[in-house]
Amino acid sequence: MPIAVWLYLASYIDRANIGNAKVLGLAKSLNLTSGQYNWALSIFFIGYVIFETPSNILLRKLSPRWYIPALTVLWGLICALFATVKTASGLLAIRFFLGLAEAGFLPGIIYWLSCWYPRSVLGRRFGVLYSTVSLTGAFGGLLATAIHSLDGTYGIAGWQWIFIVEGVITAGFGLIAAVVMSAYPATAKFLTEEERRIVILTNEADRAQKAREGFNGKQIRSAFTDWRTYLWALVYISIYIPVYSVILSLPSVVTGLGYKGTTATLMACPPYGLGFIIVLLAGWSADKHGRLFYHYIAAVLVTSVALIVLMAVENLVVRYIMFFFVMFMFIPVSICWVWLTANLAGPNKRAAAMGFVFSVGNIGGTVSGQIYRAEWAPRYVQGHAINLGCYVIAIIAGTALWLSYKADNRKRDLATNEKVTRTKPLDLLGEDLGDLGDRHPSFRYYL
Questions:
Q1: Suppose 150 and one of 161, 249, 315, 397 were both cysteines; which one would form an S-S bond, judging by CB atoms 3.0 to 4.6 Å apart?
Q2: Which pTM does this prediction carry?
Q3: Contact between residue 92 and residue 43 where contact means Cβ atoms under 8 Å apart
Q4: What are the b/e assignments for 224-243, b being 16+ CB within 10 Å?
Q5: 285-299 per-position pLDDT tens digit
């Protein structure tokens, strides 16, 4: 977990630091127009969309121990090279390659963690991991402001120092990860034989996950013949568009409340602090009580109400307070990580489906950079309305998934004449789900 958290924190800082760099001199130095800046935000995600699915399939062929650290070092170095950019076209090019290098990381790290822990404890783990995103908003703004104090040192602008320092730190994290990271429980040297046996048997009892499962093309293909994979993709894109648009644009949106420069970046930090806390609490609650859909839908509704208030109210204090409630947008993402990985049996199908779902979700990233447009300042009503529409789709698609999982569990309970619940799970120790995976009659979906 510590490895995953530090690497994920670095990845989000590196992808979102352009927002802080913009208000701290990037836009002025490169003479960026509003359209050019928005495209710089969007083009990053084109690399994601292209490479996420093949990357996760490739991860099944290679060892996560080497693959994930290598990606980290690569995107860290590319981030540092942002300091060499002199034109808008150069910014677009390097943002694309940053997205391409970083694309395989998130679905890879989520898949890797899902191979270590049973489904009943993933909520807290993914909550801790994803809370780093909200921490990025708070810490990233503070870090960017601190690094900007180097403005002029060695003739380098403050915004350039932001990319250099943060990129070098990320590359260093990648090198450390290559030394300390273990691929899977069966090969983890830091575990004793007894600890290794417990981890392996726990995962097998939970979802029939074997200690060593090779690459299986048929199971990979099953991810793309399962209709739920595409419904999950719809869920993911509808919850990712609001998250990305707010993360990339909040410093600029806060300027609409009357704050400028470093003050704007600092005033964007407190809402992220609340986001950090509530994601952790949601993860703890999901593990304790289950009911993943209820956690998902409640957070979507809270965020939707906050967006409606932002559209309707002009009072600056009320609008700033609403940004604290907008931070509930982080909860559906971390809950969906748990829900998706918990309901995909078999490492091959899980890797492929997760890569595809994350890839489609990041199509939303290409859209997100266009949502909070400068011409819609200072209230950004149209941007809030677009995000609200995304959440309406998220409610419909998430509800359809929940009902389908619930119906399949009921059919399987009737077929086996056994009521399986979260507190009374089915022991799958010794069970072979084969190519059926989660479609096997013995498997039960998390609700």
A1: 161
A2: 0.85
A3: yes
A4: eebebbebbbbbbbbbbbbb
A5: 999 998 999 999 999
